[in-house]
Amino acid sequence: MMTRSFWRRFEENHALTDPGVIEEAVRAGNNQVDVALHYKICYPRPEYVDPGTMGGESDFRRRSTRANTKLGRLHKSRLQSQFRPGKH
Question: What is d(CA 85, CA 80) in angstroms, rounded to the nearest whole number?
């Protein structure tokens, strides 16, 4: 559970030698402890990507047209009418 996760992370990071990398690992650990204390969860904070940036979705426009939606509804009603009793 939580202790296994911490031990696993400790085992992954125990061989770090670069001071910058060690400082970043300590900062990430402190941030995770802060999140765990505040939200009362032990999971790391998800990292979000802003829309319009390199990894974010920039196109929020509608993918289908209203005509496609209408066709879908008409097709559905035609399909349903085939299976209504007394319409054979």
Answer: 10
How far apart CA 34 and CA 32 sit, in angstroms, is: 5
Question: What tens digit of pLDDT does each residue of 19-34 get?
Answer: 999 999 999 888 888 8
Residue 65: C-alpha distances to residues 23, 60, 73, 74, 76 (Å):
51, 14, 13, 15, 17
**Whole-model pTM?**
0.43
Q: Where are the strands (E) in the chain, listed by range?
A: none
Q: Distance between CA 46 and CA 73 in Å, rounded?
A: 39
Q: How many helices (H) and strands (E) does the chain have?
A: 3, 0
